[in-house]
Amino acid sequence: MFQKLFTAQQIKDIDNQTIKRQNITSEELMERAATRLHKALVKDLKIEQTIYIFCGKGNNGGDALVLARLLQPVYHIKCILVPFSKKSSLDFDLNLKKLSEMPLAIETYQSENNLKIGPKDIVIDGIFGTGLTRPATGIAAAAIDYVNRSGATVYSIDMPSGLYADQSNQPDDSIIKATKVYTFQFPKISFLFPENAPYIKDFEIVDIGLDPSVISVMPTQYFMITKNIKNILKERSKVSYKNNFGHALIVGGSFGMMGAPVLASKAALRIGAGLVSNFLPKIGYQISQTAISEVMTHTDKQSKYITKIQVPDKITAVGLGMGFGQHPETQKAFKKFLKKNDKALLLDADALNILALHPEWLHLLPKNTILTPHIGEFKRLVGSWKNDSEKLEKLQKFAEKHQAIVVLKGAYTTISDGAFFYINPVANAALATAGSGDVLSGIITGLLAQGYQPLEAALLGVYLHSQTAELYTQEHQNFSMIASDIITLLKDKDLLLSNKKV
What we know:
By secondary structure, this protein is of the alpha/beta class. Helix content is about 35%, strand content about 15%.
């Protein structure tokens, strides 16, 4: 269901333990990694193109040298050494010697004046790897900036040079803008920071045979959701009836904002809740009954906003906040609800904004309440941050303090239960549409109603929600997707089969 993600130091430890357990040398591991990289990379190369391979002086540069040796018999290769340090790694030196014995020109990068790389060319970036801990400077920064200006297609080995593996960079750091990254064994944590999207248009995992027993016991806080999350879906008996699948309640809506609870209610139904009710201000009655005839509608006495929340009998999960508004009477009703509620609970949208206004109410949340903020709502709850590393720190601390499960929505939606991070590997602009978050909340509430554990419901809901966008954009422009399309695609038989990244 998950792929482990590791820090740079942990990756180094896994490499070293693999060498020891498999009784190989570091040079042999490098040869194996580059050979598998070569096999993956050649499908993207054309014989008529000139390939410039930029090599640093560490092990990432060593990988690049091995790759150059493997490509040389077929492709037009130019090997460019980037001398950012007087020192070099032993494996780099060994492979430089091997390459120098072949009929291939090896140049040293001095300035961009020596090169004429253009949009028709290929650059393979092997300047820095996961060991980088400070910004690229000097000749390395100059080479990175030149490659970025060249317009060439850029393939990075393991990670874009200049990017840190598990921490945020500074905004003005020199970092390769890779067309594609061929990353060894697992994505790096920083790949899934939204702020790093300019540097990684796409990535492909290359299995280099790191020891699985080492990987399995290496502890980590970071996990990437994979398509195997579908395995938690429960099978249904052919003699089931609706009461076997729970009763979801969607609470929300205010004047002009009735679409939000309607979308959430539809999504809860579509994901399989046996029954769905909603609780709306009085003005929502006709809207709901017309838009979703399958849902039972209950209303407040007040016409335009909610003043008292009533939970019907036999409700198994509540999703609250979509289009809710922040009227003072609505805030009071929300507080009274929190004091009495004993149902599985999801809070979204204005419920989160009200909590930001009244943080003293957070102690009223039952354990494992699911919160689904977008970036703006989360900032109202925890304050601002300077980068994605700090954002994740705030996410973990908030979830841990309030014993909540927080679904931080956006590109690479991240879920934390206070102990671990679960990152969805999909960033699809099709989901950047009005009502998309309401649909996600309805999906998760529908899963909660069916008896899924809160973390399971959050993980599965986020996965299914994102995969509808992946399906949609196979045939349609991403800007054309609307929230109702997400609900429709939940019934697609191919939903659990599509996953571009993992």
